[in-house]
TrEMBL record:
InterPro entries: C-type_lectin-like, C-type_lectin-like/link_sf, C-type_lectin_CS, CTDL_fold. It comes from Astyanax mexicanus. It comes from the Eukaryota. Residues 1-21 form the signal peptide. PANTHER family: C-TYPE LECTIN DOMAIN FAMILY 20 MEMBER A-RELATED, C-TYPE LECTIN DOMAIN FAMILY 4 MEMBER K-LIKE-RELATED. This is C-type lectin 1-like. Pfam families: Lectin_C. Gene3D superfamilies: Mannose-Binding Protein A, subunit A. Residues 318-338 are annotated as: Disordered. The keyword Coiled coil does not apply.
Amino acid sequence: MEMRLLYMLLVTGVLQTLSSGLYEYHLITDQKNWTDAQAYCREHYVDLATVENDLDFGRIQREAQRLSFTSEAWVGLYNDINSWRCSRDEVPLGSWSKWQTDQPNNVFGKDQCVIIFQDKRWYDISCSSKHSFICYDETISSPEKFVYYTDQKTWMEAQDFCRQRHTDLACPTNSNEELLLEKTFIYGWTWIGFFRDGWKWSDKSNSSDVRWFTDQPNNAGGKDNCGYVVKSVFSNGGTSAGLFDDGSCSNQRAFFCQYVPKNTQVMRLVVHSSQDMNDPTVQADLLENMQQKLMEQWMVENTTLQWKKHSDGSVFYKQKEKRKKNEKEKNTTSVCEM
């Protein structure tokens, strides 16, 4: 029972640490491009900073104030512009394509889906606009396996429709399939099944609720695929207009790294055993067993256990227990701290 209680106390402490924010931030004022900043953070800390909520934002501000910093700084945001793949099977787009010249260009900063136009070329546009679409049906032989619909839908709505009625949105992967698709195509902007990921955090954290500055991201420079904290966040003591802007990854800026602060907690362990608890083999077996139990009960990754040694080099010491007078044998209890 005592051992079980110990496990529960340790796990509770870990969960409390997680809920209060796992990462801390360190501002590097030496200016680097985004890629070099990422490499530096990964070598010396953990990664470029992920800023997901008000607690994170507060820590970023405090770190900037510590160094009297009032300029722009890279964080871990980047636009995954090379992740084009097919809706049907998530297979990446290969070397064959029908992009129009200078496409894809992400001209509005949020162009993550593909349409085909009357010139039979592909363009990237926002997935939220509404257009006709072409479905693919694997149960039908060529060329009828491509089915054209004039209904105006967003890319996601078109995908849902095609998956319910057919197989999925159409993804031509070679010139023969493209010719078959073009035979069903009539006019106007029309969805096909290629799409890509958008903005991500360098450490792969959830990026669904990024607090962009007003009207950002907009890819104003044409290749603005990395994110930074805007100056007004620091110079004006914070802003309700948002935190992040998009910029060219080649620009030189200061940057925020994130790291996991090391926390040490000492726990007292009582063990009832007939074994010599100061035997290194016995200690190693017990520690391994405890580590496994803690992992089963959601111990956070990168948390380790180790014995705390006394000044004489021992880990456990014996503590005599009071027994009833009629008990002939004296048992001992081993106690340690860890």
